[in-house]
Amino acid sequence: MKRVSFGILPNGFRFYTRYRNNTHVAGIGVKVGSIHDPPDLSGMAHFAEHVLGTLTPEEELRLEEYDCGPEEQIMVETDRSSTFYGCDLILRREFVFDILGMFAERLSGPLKFITDEKKNLSEKAAIHNEYYLRGKDIPESALDDAVMWHMFENNPARKRVDCELEQLEKLNVEDLKRFVKKYYVAGNMFGVILNVPFKKARAIMEKYFGHLPAKEAPRILIENPRPLILGAKRVEIARPGIHQHHIAVAFPTWPFGHKDDEAVDLLAEILQWRLRNRLRFENQEWAKGVYRAFTNTDRSFAHGIIYAHLATIDKAFSERAVEIVLEECQKLRSGFVLNQEIIAMHNKIFNQHFDAFENSQGILCRMIVESACNGDEEMRELNSFLTRLNRVGKKTLMRVANEYLDIKNHLQVVIVPA
Predict the structure, then answer these.
(1) How many Å apart are CA 50 and CA 163, to the nearest integer?
(2) Contact at 8 Å (CB) between 232 and 406?
(3) Contact between 155 and 298 (Cβ < 8 Å)
(4) What DSSP letter does each residue of 129-193 carry, written as one string?
(5) Which tens digits make up the pLDDT trace of 307-351?
(6) In a 10 Å sphere around its CB, with 0-12 CB exposed, 13-18 middle and 19+ buried, how is residue 320 labelled?
(7) d(Cα 12, Cα 372) in Å, to the nearest integer?
(8) Which of 105, 151, 184, 249 has the fewest beta carbons closer than 10 A?
(9) What is the DSSP track for 54-121?
(10) In what order do the strands lie in the sheet with 410-417?
């Protein structure tokens, strides 16, 4: 399996490439996300992405021609630790180069693109609507936000990625300029251009970003990335207009790049498999059971978490569901793991990673962005992921389960119908 390669321009700007002659993916990444939002200005990183990611009507029309409109293959997005401006799975290479040029023009000289007050007001209004459309009005998103908020009380990873509305509304051009000057610099940006030979990728990035002065952005240090939870901390939130109880049972882990990452991912897959069996397939009562039960892992350089979440109609069954999650966690702690479970979930993770490298270039691009923005700037962890995954066995799973799935000390968040 061909590895992801990286290069560095003299000014510190990095670029990543992997040559395969099929569909094309490219874009510009910035090592900045909601974790970097200034105090009392939640949503700044997301606001910057909206303003700098807004193209002219003529450019937008070209995107539509390339089948890369807002709901197709465009990749302009922000999360807790990264912002990316690019495109996914474009058939013709010249289209990708054109799109890359559009964003490179903005990011190589961003200050001149953020002074249009009308555009800034338009994007604030768009984020205001996005806040509800993709966040607050969706119970699952509200549950995720509540888990992060109550788990990481002294960690900027707890912030919503999109914004807090009252803080977004007061953002102004001068705030945005200060933020962009601080983080949109050569040493804090990078290019991703897949299916282009290394020398050509370097020449393209040199053309757009080689003139930038060498400058690094300040790093954020997190003193206690893994919070200490004493007892079973429970948070209950009443929400009108819903019919189900939405439940999360969460445990803190170490941030991105820890030696246990692969084992935690494997535990999450096994736990999810078991919960679906017990909560859905073992139930035959009309008003009980679940449609889906998930277990997620989420990490950045500032935080790590594993949590199970589900929804059910019946209040009594929601309490029983929490008990079942903790029962299955205890079984994993005691070493009760079947070989066929390990093999099946190992192969699932292996196949997902392999598919990203060989077939799903858009997913690979997101993996590169995640790695670059969370400490794996040389792609060592990404390129060696399968080797480390293959080392995880039953003893490691038991040790890691006992390290993280502490059934006496964890967070429960429940959203209940009001």
Answers:
(1) 12
(2) no
(3) no
(4) HHHIIIIITSHHHHHHHHHHHHH-TTSGGGS-SS--HHHHHT--HHHHHHHHHHHSSGGGEEEEE
(5) 999 999 999 999 999 999 999 999 999 988 999 999 999 999 999
(6) middle
(7) 13
(8) 105
(9) PPPHHHHHHHHHTT-STTTTEEEEE-SS-EEEEEEEESSHHHHHHHHHHHHHHHSSGGGGS--HHHHH
(10) 232-239, 410-417, 245-252, 304-312, 293-299
For the cut 80, the answer to whether the pLDDT of residue 89 exceeds it is no
User: Which is it for strands 410-417 and 24-30: parallel, antiparallel or unpaired?
Assistant: unpaired
Instruction: Please calculate the CA angle 192-195-201 and round it to the nearest 5 degrees.
Output: 55
* 86, 110, 135, 293 from 70: Cα distances, Å: 11, 21, 18, 30
User: Comparing C-alpha atoms, which of 18, 15, 366, 376 is closest to residue 191?
Assistant: 15
Work out the number of other CB atoms within 10 angstroms of the CB of residue 417.
15
Q: Which two tokens stand for residue 334?
A: 């005691």
- Give the integer Cα–Cα distance in Å for 7 and 10: 10
- How far is the C-alpha of 205 from the C-alpha of 193, rounded, in Å? 9
Q: Taking the C-alpha atoms of 382, 387, 388 and 391 in order, what is their torsion angle to the nearest 10 degrees?
A: 170
pLDDT of residue 74: 84
Distance CA 43, CA 36 (A): 10
Q: What is the mean pLDDT of residues 177-203?
A: 95
Q: What is the pLDDT of residue 71?
A: 65
Q: Are strands 232-239 and 293-299 parallel, antiparallel or unpaired?
A: unpaired
Q: Which of 273, 278, 276 is nearest to 293 (CA)?
A: 276
Q: What predicted TM-score, i.e. pTM, was given to this entire model? A: 0.95
Residue 31 token pair = 């090592």
Q: What is the pLDDT of residues 352-404, one digit of tens each?
A: 999 999 888 889 999 999 999 999 999 999 999 999 999 999 999 999 999 99
Q: Is the pLDDT of residue 72 over 70?
A: no
In the block, tokens 């799935």 appear at: 405
Q: What's the order of all strands across the beta sheet hosting 5-8?
A: 5-8, 14-17, 189-194, 24-30, 83-90, 74-78
Q: What is the C-alpha to C-alpha distance for residues 41 and 38, in angstroms, rounded to an integer?
A: 5
